[in-house]
Automatic annotation (TrEMBL):
NCBIfam families: DIP1984_fam. It comes from Perspicuibacillus lycopersici. Keywords: Coiled coil. This is DIP1984 family protein. The keyword DNA damage does not apply.
């Protein structure tokens, strides 16, 4: 199995866990004299089995990410960390730009005047650069995911 396939399965497992959680919560309490629509014990068993599979799959994914070389300097796990940090920085600067661009109308000279304390043009350029770095890194990661076999 390729790493990319394992990642897709992991996402499916995580969605299924959430669905089982919701079903379990819906059936754990009923009005006195009523029966739950599903047996909570059966749902709990299915949830436990799925979580065991998910745990094993995540271990294999993590091992593969750690032992797979991304380039001559870093592992795939390192590249994933870099992508995450670039994404966080991009998000913060995008939110900063939103705040800087909020226009507060003044109706008289006595109202408080607000000014932007950053260079919006430079900040936007930084966001654009981060976005490009993120896209390029993400493309390389996705390509490697489809070329890499999942390690046991």
């Amino acid at each position: 199995m390729k790493l990319a396939e394992a990642l897709i399965i992991r996402t499916d497992y995580q969605k299924k866990v959430e669905q089982l959680r919701n079903r379990l919560f819906q059936n754990v309490r009923v009005q006195d004299g009523d029966q739950p629509s599903e047996d909570p014990k059966v749902i709990m068993e299915e949830l436990t089995d799925l979580l065991k599979k998910l745990k094993s799959l995540i271990r294999h994914i993590n091992r593969t990410n750690l032992l797979t070389s991304f380039d001559e300097r870093q592992s795939l796990a390192d590249a994933l960390t870099s992508r995450e940090i670039i994404g966080q920085e991009r998000k913060i600067y995008s939110e900063l730009l939103e705040q800087a661009n909020v226009r507060i109308d003044r109706y008289s000279r006595t109202e408080i005047k607000y000014v932007t304390t950053i260079n919006v043009k430079e900040a936007q350029k930084h966001v654009d650069d981060l976005s490009q770095q993120y896209r390029l890194l993400d493309m390389k990661i996705q390509e490697l995911n489809w070329k890499t076999d999942l390690m046991e």
